[in-house]
Write a structure and sequence with these properties.
It catalyses: ATP + protein L-histidine = ADP + protein N-phospho-L-histidine. With 935 residues, the chain is α+β, with helices and mostly antiparallel strands. It is 47% helix and 21% strand.
């Protein structure tokens, strides 16, 4: 007869039980064992067709137990294999995570280095466009603003920059910040990177080179141009150790470290300071000479080739008592700096990475062993429980299902509570951010009407959130700003629809009117809002007040514009002075040769007076261009005001009330008293013309000290102590557009024939020439206020009682050098009229030849400063080579400052400014001739 097995749990039942015992993706050991064991038993039953006619019940039970035990061992083997697979997978994931973490830190530091170098190059580009980078000579004092610009760069980069050099087009150092006398004049054309910029006129980051034992650095160079003319370069010397210290201290875990090398393997940053400046392979091999460094050499070769990657190598480590071999994990990536390439790497002990893997392996095997013990125990229990009734199993299964459902429901409730709590916390954080941020956060609907706005609107616009909500953009923005904003939004929305992109943000600058009527400039970042169906629902933006930034930009543009106009005006006035020199000089010469009752004498006198008036106009142009006559003295501004009041008090209409407030004990200033008085007269005349029906004119003096923060509000100001002259009127006032143009030459709002447009231009030029600046505030219908800031001197006031000696002639031989024929002819005729013998030359080359031919006989050389072929300075130096005791008088249409003072310091004994009077020429010539010289 056919033997039947006892009833066992079927495969379908085991699968049902398995599903019942699932909880959050986890299964109980009992359910796992029972399900898998039953699957194996049923499979064996299908594979083995046992036909036994007569077997005792004990044999049948033995067969069942044997099959079950075999299934248990198969399951145990599966657990071991599964555990090993999990261990390998965990190890791979751990190494990947560590590498990703190390790559993140390394890339951050690489970006830090690249951004640092880029920031320095940006600052160099900015300095290259400032007067600091203009054409000037070695040893010339560096203007304060320019020195401050360099100092600001050093302060900004926090000590990471060693020094800043300004070199000419031959690589010779003209200036250094911080200043160091020993370096000025040195030739750096052979220094790393300098030669490249001198040859190619392009920015360059140099190779690494040794600064001193144990210190290395490199140059960042930027060419300097005056339009298309190459003037030289700006170079910044950076000590690698200055930023290396901020890199090498970073660690990954307890054994990680970062180091940086260049494309030749030279160490730029390392946790071991003794390695800095050495080749990394040589440094390691010198430390452990007997070790095989081939793995490490392969890593370094990949780094110097500019690769990005990771790897493993073996290294040596010396502890207090022993030396051990350690396995290292490394990640590396390149750093590109122009034509140069560095590489940064981060290493850590592989044992530190493997520690969690070992713990996981131990825990997995312990868990597997425990599982097998449980499986064995459960197997015994299971084999003994086969006789239980099916009803009990069904009850147990129902109870289990009920418990799982309860646990699942409880778990879902907890998850929902946690999500609700997280949502409330998120809303609280967003609300806290919106209520405390300084910028305005707002939301508007499709009609551009505000539906939400943050409380910061009160600080920026003076409106409460309740007042602002409901207002439209049309009510807040100026018409031009509104038009621009609308145009931008429409264009960007159309572009987003075409490209099917909804994530968009655009920054728009606009003019906004505050509640008090004041207009501010704001920067707004706007983005579109969409509902859950993807339909456009409104706008969201963040608005920031940039009024101060905008005003500074406008002041800077205005200063640059005035500088350009000044250069043009100075050139025109200089050439015009040469022409006036001939007219004025010959008119004076004619008057000197005629009797006063002669008819031609009156003609000559009229020509001389007209030329003098024209000279006054050119003087005002030169004053604006900071090239006029300039004879500084230590003076009191209060004294200048008192003297000026005597002039204007007699000429001003009685309808104008003059109110004067002079502060006692103000510091003195170093200034030209005539020019300062002219500044005050021009301001008072301007105020008088602004009050045709009368008004109040207020003149004040004061002493102010500008901080760095205060100076930053004015593009032309710098911190320091100032004496302030204020002139205030109650006249018609000016609008913004007029205020921006009042200092331009020939710009005037007066009727034709009532003003030249040079008065305020002269004010601007004189004040700038004295190192000060002008502040203007005005409102149409309210009046205007001009504040003149002059640097305080603090020295005692000086009074010049010297008088110009009377003009007289002589019989010496004089050489006149000028490229203008009318100036040469005038000087020759005038001097010969008073007994002198005169030779003339058109430029410096002819002058040197003439002096060489008459060496020993020429008593004085009158030299023009600007000439073709050879300028005034070069001419004088050539003449000094022929005769160290040569006497020279410098003649120019520019003032006595800048290049003029530089030439005078070379030994030129006198200076006369064109156009000059006959008496002035004769007096200066006689003074220089009578001055004794030493070899």
């Amino acid at each position: 007869m056919k033997f039947k097995f006892q009833k066992h749990v079927t495969l379908e039942e085991s699968q049902g039980q398995e599903e019942v015992t699932k909880l959050g993706g986890l299964r109980r050991p009992w359910t796992i064992f029972r399900g898998r064991a039953t699957e194996i038993l049923n499979w064996l039953r299908k594979m083995l067709v046992i036909r036994v006619i007569t077997l005792p019940p004990s044999t049948i039970h033995l067969i069942n137990r044997t099959l079950f035990i075999a299934a248990c061992f198969l399951f145990a083997a599966g657990i071991v294999l599964w555990t090993r697979r999990n261990i390998l997978k965990f190890e791979e994931e751990t190494v990947t995570k560590v590498n990703r973490y190390m790559f993140g830190i390394t890339r951050e530091k690489a970006q830090y280095i690249e951004q640092f170098i880029q920031e320095i190059q940006d600052y160099l580009g900015l300095l290259a466009r400032k007067p600091f980078s203009g054409e000037f000579k070695k040893g010339q004092p560096l203007p304060y603003n320019d020195y401050a610009a360099g100092e600001a760069l050093l302060e900004h980069v926090g000590g990471r920059v060693d020094s800043i050099y300004r070199m000419d087009k031959k690589g010779v150092v003209l200036h250094r910040i911080p200043h160091r006398n020993g370096i000025i004049g040195k030739d750096f054309s052979k220094a790393p990177g300098i030669g490249y910029v001198l040859k190619n006129h392009k920015p360059y980051v140099s190779e690494i080179f040794a600064l001193s034992p144990g210190a290395i650095g490199f140059y960042i160079c930027n060419p300097v141009f005056d339009e298309a003319n190459f003037l030289g370069l700006l170079s910044i010397l950076i000590n690698v150790d200055t930023f290396g210290r901020s890199i090498c201290h970073i660690q990954a875990g307890s054994t990680g470290a970062i180091w940086v090398i260049d494309d030749k393997g030279l160490i730029l940053s390392h946790s071991n300071p003794d390695f800095i400046g050495k080749n990394i392979l040589k440094a390691e091999e010198d430390t452990f000479a007997d070790f095989d460094w081939s793995e490490f050499e392969h890593i370094v070769r990949r780094m110097t080739d500019g690769e990005e990657g990771h790897g493993v190598y073996h290294s040596m480590r010396r502890t207090d008592k022993t030396t051990e071999i350690v396995k290292k994990a490394v990640v590396f990536l390149p750093i590109k700096l122009g034509d140069q390439m560095w590489s940064i790497a981060m290493t850590t002990d592989y044992e530190e990475i493997a520690a969690p893997v070992k713990r996981n392996t131990r825990n997995n095997f312990l868990g597997a062993a425990l599982m097998m013990v449980i499986v064995g125990a459960v197997g015994v229990i299971y084999s003994r429980s086969q006789k239980r009734k099916t009803e009990l199993e069904a009850i147990a299964r129902s109870a289990e299902e009920l418990r799982i459902s309860h646990d699942k429901l409880k778990f879902e409730i907890e998850q929902r509570n946690q999500a609700e709590k997280a949502r409330e916390e998120s809303e609280s954080n967003y609300r806290l951010l919106a209520e405390n941020v300084l910028d305005i956060i707002w939301i508007a609907d499709l009609n551009f009407r505000l539906t939400y706005i943050s409380p910061s609107v009160t600080r920026v616009l003076g409106l409460t959130p309740q007042e602002a909500i409901g207002q439209t953009m049309q009510e807040l923005l100026s018409p031009p700003s509104l038009e621009m904003a609308m145009k931008t939004l429409v264009e960007e929305f159309a572009k987003g629809q075409e490209q099917k992109e909804k994530s968009w943000a655009r920054t728009v600058d606009s003019e906004i009117c505050r509640k008090d009527g004041v207009t501010i400039w704001a920067e707004t970042k706007v983005s579109f809002l969409y509902d859950s169906k993807g339909t456009l629902a409104g706008l969201m933006g963040v608005t920031r007040d940039i009024t101060e930034k905008f005003q500074l930009q406008q002041q800077l543009l205005q200063a640059q514009k005035m500088e350009s106009i000044g250069t043009l005006a100075g050139g025109i006035a200089h050439d015009f002075n040469n022409l006036l020199g001939g007219i004025l000089g010959y008119a004076s010469l004619m008057k000197a040769k005629l009797r006063k009752d002669h008819q031609v004498f009156s003609y000559a006198d009229t020509i001389e007076k007209s030329a003098n008036r024209a000279a006054e106009l050119t003087a005002q142009l030169l004053a604006f261009a900071r090239g006029g006559r300039y004879e500084p003295k230590i003076i009191s501004l209060n004294s200048v005001v008192d003297e000026t009041l005597e002039i204007i008090g007699r000429t001003f209409d009685k309808l104008i009330e003059i109110d004067v407030h002079l502060r006692d004990s103000i510091p003195t200033v170093e200034a030209d008293p005539g020019q300062v008085q002219q500044v005050l007269i021009n301001l008072c005349l301007n105020a008088r013309d602004a009050m045709p029906s009368g008004g109040k004119l207020n003149i004040e003096t004061d002493h102010e000290t500008l901080t760095v923060e205060q100076a930053q509000r004015h593009a032309e100001a710098r911190p320091g102590s100032y004496v302030v002259l204020s002139v205030t009127d109650t006249g018609v006032g000016m609008d913004k557009e007029t205020v921006q143009r009042i200092f331009e030459p020939f710009f005037t709002t007066k009727e034709k024939g009532k003003g030249t447009g040079l008065g305020l231009s002269m004010v601007y030029g004189v004040v700038k020439n004295h190192g000060g600046h002008v502040s203007v505030s005005s409102k149409r219908g309210k009046g205007s206020k001009f504040k003149i800031y002059l640097p305080a001197s603090g020295k005692s006031e000086m009074r010049d009682a010297s008088k110009q000696p009377a003009a007289r002639g002589g019989n010496e031989l004089i050489l006149v050098v000028d490229d203008e024929e009318v100036v040469r002819s005038l000087a020759k005729d005038a001097l010969e009229s008073y007994g002198y013998t005169v030779l003339v030359a058109r430029d410096g080359v002819e002058a040197v030849d003439a002096y060489r031919e008459n060496n020993g006989n020429i008593g004085l050389v009158i030299i023009d400063m600007v000439m073709p072929r050879m300028g005034g300075r070069e001419t004088f130096l050539k003449l000094k080579e022929l005769n160290p005791r040569v006497k020279a008088l410098l003649s120019t249409g520019y003032s006595r400052n800048g290049k003029v003072n530089e030439i005078l310091r070379t030994g030129v004994m006198g200076f006369i400014q064109k156009p000059f009077q006959l008496e002035e020429l004769l007096s200066r010539v006689r003074t220089v001739l009578d001055t004794k010289t030493s070899a």
